[in-house]
Amino acid sequence: MAEVLSPATESRDRGIKLRNYLKIDSLQEYMLINSDSPSIEFYRRSDRTEVWEYLTINSSDLTVNNPEVQLASIDLNLPLSLIYENVDFKRA
What we know:
The chain is α+β, with helices and mostly antiparallel strands. It has 4 helices and 6 strands, in the order E-H-H-E-E-E-H-E-E-H.
């Protein structure tokens, strides 16, 4: 599951929605996509179903390489540059 954060929804997406989503037994991954800058927060369920791993990928990672979000639940590696392709942050 993925949420694109906006100023109007960010506190709700990080609060009540996040808490409720992490309770869904079948949910394996949850991604929060920042709309203001290339930055992603990622929650991944570990082998133990009650434990979640928290990862971040941001624009500073782009200077080193092209980081990928690894979505193991659907066997997909998604480059950060592809997620933000054609996004003009200067217009925001």
